[in-house]
Amino acid sequence: MATDVARSPERSAPHDIAPDPVALQAILDGRYAEVRDLVRRNLVEHAGLLDEVDDLDRDTYRDRVLEVVQKVAATGQTGFGFPTEHGGGGDIGASVAAFETLAYGDLSVLVKVGVQFGLFGGAVLQLGTRRHHEAYLRRIIDGSLLGSFAMTESGHGSNVQALETTATFDLATDEFVLRTPHDAARKDYIGNAARHAEVAVVFAQLHIAGDSQGVHAFVVPIRVRDEDDRLVPAPGVRIEDCGHKMGLQGVDNGRIWFDDVRIPRENLLDRFATVSEAGVYDSEIESPGRRFFTTIGTLVQGRVSVGGAAINASKVAMTLAVRYAERRRQFEASGEQEELLLDYGLHQRRLLPLLAATYALHAAQEEVAGDLHAVFSGERTDDRSRRALESAAAGLKAYGTWHATRTIQECREACGGAGYLSASRFAALKADTDVFTTFEGDNHVLLQLVAKGLLTDYASDFQDADQLGMVRLVGGLALDEVVKRTRAHQLLERVRGLLPSGDEDEDETGVLDTSYQLAMLRYREEQVIASAARRLKSGVDDGIEPGEVFSRVQAHVIAAARAHVERTVLEAFVAKVESLPEGDERRVMGMLLDLHALSLIEADRAWFLEHGRMSSARAKQVRREVDHLCRRLRPHARVLVDAFAVPEEVLRAPDLLGPVVVAGEQGAAEVPGHHPLGETAEMVAEKVPDDA
Amino acid sequence: MATDVARSPERSAPHDIAPDPVALQAILDGRYAEVRDLVRRNLVEHAGLLDEVDDLDRDTYRDRVLEVVQKVAATGQTGFGFPTEHGGGGDIGASVAAFETLAYGDLSVLVKVGVQFGLFGGAVLQLGTRRHHEAYLRRIIDGSLLGSFAMTESGHGSNVQALETTATFDLATDEFVLRTPHDAARKDYIGNAARHAEVAVVFAQLHIAGDSQGVHAFVVPIRVRDEDDRLVPAPGVRIEDCGHKMGLQGVDNGRIWFDDVRIPRENLLDRFATVSEAGVYDSEIESPGRRFFTTIGTLVQGRVSVGGAAINASKVAMTLAVRYAERRRQFEASGEQEELLLDYGLHQRRLLPLLAATYALHAAQEEVAGDLHAVFSGERTDDRSRRALESAAAGLKAYGTWHATRTIQECREACGGAGYLSASRFAALKADTDVFTTFEGDNHVLLQLVAKGLLTDYASDFQDADQLGMVRLVGGLALDEVVKRTRAHQLLERVRGLLPSGDEDEDETGVLDTSYQLAMLRYREEQVIASAARRLKSGVDDGIEPGEVFSRVQAHVIAAARAHVERTVLEAFVAKVESLPEGDERRVMGMLLDLHALSLIEADRAWFLEHGRMSSARAKQVRREVDHLCRRLRPHARVLVDAFAVPEEVLRAPDLLGPVVVAGEQGAAEVPGHHPLGETAEMVAEKVPDDA
């Protein structure tokens, strides 16, 4: 419980603080400051790409992106995640830090890096064995062997287990035969496929001697060099360009069909399952379901990376919007000069809670990236850590990418017409990040995975209880627990709902007390999970067909996952702030923490009110405090975005950031502007009677 | 009070209804069905443009758009709003209907039409007099004289009254001299300016003999033909291309500087003010403020048009998402075949309330367009009607354009990766409509205008009361009214807040009762306005500087405007449903009405709970009913989008709508897919004890 943050005196004396942007940046950059600086230098070097792209044709843009990718690969920036023995950096945490930071620049470069080094290279590393590592990794890392990650099919995206591409073992030739059985089974949206990839890691149903062994991954050459040394599709491989997309034009997404393409048996990535020369299938993981999830568990790094990239893309948008709002004036409220946008209460309300959430997500991302590093470096090897990581990665990817969509949109609107011009980065940010909510796992499907884990844990508690014997439970200390989860608890809840001030702590704890904020989010999470479980159970008990039960409870299940993710993000932010030494940086981050926590509570205050966890008076207090925190943070907004350290060269928004045109800079308008509610306050004050 | 809709028996027996899409379309198309059909035919004829644009360079795209604009102009589609004597159609309502429907197609064409015929042509018509009409209108209507509407400057967008371009009368030459005093005063984002316009209506501060008369509009030739008959900038005019934008690449937005450009005195659009040869300024409207607002009041048609276009762009997105969700299968819940997306409860929750809101907005738009027709055709000439129209247009423009942003985004995400390809229309819809929330009045500024009207009315009530004498008021029947607006009311409110079931009507009225729904929205609106007024007043009374008062109350003021707009939209939808004859179309629209109303109440239930207007039990009932309505409407979703009658040719989404690829169509997957929560329901049911 973070009471030391909450009650420390500096939080009640927020004025006159002067947080240092350099110190704040050091806090955000963390242990990988050098890695991030390397990426920033590379971004500056290739910042020209951002200006070129609007006028490049698609193929030229794609080739330029490839050129940049290969150049930054040469600096070591993209190889941190690979073992040193194959030319990598041997530091998974560094690899995530580098990828995240790359999101400050052109996002086609980011996604191409993700495809080549994360998905394709990662699959060879994680699913392959020494033979594959030696054959491919060095050339993957230096960018000379380009590859695709061919999982998704037109007919099956989220439901990977139902992929329809087949790989049939041919005993006679010791080969696998890859086949696309029909058009819906073509590989689709595959990055690197339309133009650059020579090989692909292809996910297909493995068939041996008539038996299906489920989805496995294979290295498949998809292009060969013709007599003129040009890359052309390999025999039996058909490739089609996905064509123009909403964004990410610099990535060559394509479709692939396989017409009995033969590959040697060795091309099975066989870390988790092998096929012998005699056609005998063998795996240490007996359960096909578990084998499948172990195989696609390697996707977790991609999810952590995309989540981090989305959070950093939000930082670019926040930087633009805050800096614009600190320069741009609009309408006089009083006096000669027009007001700065950021001095308007509504503008603060639009931007500052998003800024606080961006900081919170940064902290959560740092924690998840640390967990990824620990699990994939073998520091933590237990199943529980791995499952926890998978859930955290799924949740944060969904939360972070939706945050990016929302933040970029709000920031664009907050920059008006200037934000609509491509010169401002918003056009690219918006178009390029749009698909983040879909790829590397559709957000809703990911939240269902999170919820599944929560519900399984919830049910397991009871299962364990059964095994231990209910008598012991009921007769022992666990009674409270049982009561809480039975009808008695429902009754209690109903009673609490009747009380105007359902939270008996309200008198004792202030809304700025971190322990209060965390307690609220924890309570909600527990309740929503329990309630989702009850609904599922009662539906099944009532004999309703399970699909229908699920359909009806689905929104509730997603709400449980959201409540869980919001709680874990807040906890990560609390832990981050607590880890800081005393000082103005900690003070300002403490204010951001309060703003983030109270914004979350405010946004879902209906739930707290409905469940008797909050009184109306407290709900109004929360809203007032959010307003108040916005005003308190307003003087620090610029420093808080400067700490993101997005290089000036990639901000690329002359009309937003100067030097050209900001109203009022060249002297006040000759004819005073008309404040949209200029005289209204005074008029209302004059005309409404005193006791109204 | 719409109790006949609410309590009519068909609403409690919603099953087995079979609304007819053709009849529904007739209801939506309304009195302008023929006009809409003309536009649909033109859209189909030029649908090829939608496929071309991804590969056209900017200039070619712009010229193609101009070509299409001129071709549809020749069919009369774009001239409905002009008087018949100058070659127009003489029907303003028809003009709005045509424009809205055009939003089904390429939105660069839409915006170019809006610039040429709405803004430029509209300004000449509304601000000019016979001399200007005779000189320009016929060539404007046939698209041979292309023009710009040069109002916005880089430094001043929303604050039009503070524009800095000057037009100084030169008595000696009988001319106005236009001048851009500095870079921030350049005209910016001006449609048609970068490539096609020959003339512009320029808004500038009129200076005569040292006196400033405020913003006036002038016809200014900005391009002339050179010896090779090419259009080049006129002497003293500098034009720059705004370059690449987020969307709407087919519109040539530009910047314009004036360096002492001379135009004849006759070029002042002089409907509301004249300048004589002797340099005497004269206007029938004495107040400069009122003159200014009368001048820019002509913008109202543009706002009504943009709001309608946004609503219709939402219809395209809804059509794609619903039709995809009716074909696409993903994950087995039970049985052999995967489930249709639209059979998932969450997917219904994501799409169907937006569909209901789209219908509600359509009804509201029809009403506002009718009001526009009445006011601008001279059927209603009173000031009150005009002010009401301006407020309604501002509110609906903001609401409709935000609805479009949100709906297009949700529909894109609901279509997964296929929705990200440009082949699906989402890319263009999203990029092109993004600026709708900004142009024709920034949405937040528009909501402030709405709020200003509400607060002025609120204060005026008291002002009138003062004039009549408070004695009479207090001694008479108006006592209730006074009490309601004074501290006693605040006390009462506080008491209600303490009651768990503050709404004493809850036992008597059902949530499906339209009178209940309307009462809730009306109550909230009144309360929020009164509360905003109180806050403004107490801030001023406390001696806080008015700018600071406004800043602090601003979010509240915007909330008042939102509450007002939501109430008026709901009322329009109620009126629309009530106007229909009995039948299945009325029944299904009644369900949409319930879903829309309850979704609004659900979304803001925190407010109702906080203000003691709703009990927790009622709040939960509302949520259950929204779920239930989604399930009831699900079988009718396809018919409801078919009724929008978006031509197949412009839907252009082969991967979403077929015939290519939908999972499961070519037979069930050989390996069963894994439902993300497949066994969870059963597992939970099994393991959670019965009384949990």
Kindly estimate the percentage of residues of chain A that lie in beta strands according to DSSP. 5-15%
What's the quaternary structure here?
A: homodimer
Q: How many individual helices of chain A?
A: 26
Mean pLDDT score of chain A, rounded?
87
Question: Which fold name fills CATH's third level, the topology of one domain in chain A?
Answer: Butyryl-CoA Dehydrogenase, subunit A, domain 3
Mass-distribution shape of chain A: globular
The CATH homology group name of one domain in chain A: Butyryl-CoA Dehydrogenase, subunit A, domain 3
Pair of chains with the largest interface and how many residues each contributes: A-B, 152 and 154 residues
Largest sheet of chain A: 8 strands, mixed
The span between the termini of chain A is 44 Å
Radius of gyration of chain A: 28 Å
Structural class given helices, strands, pairing of chain A? Answer: alpha+beta
- CATH architecture field of one domain in chain A: Up-down Bundle
Give the CATH class of one domain in chain A.
Mainly Alpha
- Say how many strands of chain A there are: 12
Helix content estimate of chain A? 40-55%
Low-confidence stretches of chain A: 1-14, 464-504, 660-678
Cofactor (chains A, B): FAD
Protein name (chains A, B): Acyl-CoA dehydrogenase
Keywords (chains A, B): FAD, Flavoprotein, Oxidoreductase
Pfam family, one (chains A, B): Acyl-CoA_dh_M
